[in-house]
Amino acid sequence: MNAAQQHLLDTYRAARRGEAAPPAPDTHTVRTAREIQQWRRFQAVVTDPGSRLRGRVRRGGLPGLTAWLRRLTPRPGPRTPRTP
Please, which domain of life does this record's source organism belong to (predicted)? Predict the structure, then answer.
């Protein structure tokens, strides 16, 4: 059952019970997307740069992770010049 069919079923049930009909699907999608965008912009202004995810990763896990990865990767030996 898709969203349109579910809406029709809910409208029928509401009419039988004498209740208000539910809103149509995708009625508030644009408004919700705008509210989410505004919230993210607000959080970007209000949040301390060090508290953001990128700052937390840099302070906490990233230096340890890069050091661990460096230990795992084999380093090439000294290069010897080729003789013709």
Answer: Bacteria
Backbone phi, then psi, for 18, in 5-degree steps?
80, 25
CA atoms within 13 A on the CB side of 66: 6
- In sequence order, the 6+-apart residues with CB closer than 8 A to the CB of 3 are 25, 26
Count CB-CB contacts under 10 A for residue 43. 10
Using one digit for the tens of pLDDT, what is the confidence trace for 30-47? 888 899 999 988 988 887
AA identity, residue 16: R
Q: Where are the alpha helices (DSSP H) in 1-84?
A: 3-17, 29-46, 53-59, 61-72
What integer is the mean pLDDT of 39-66? 71
Distance CA 36, CA 29 (A): 11
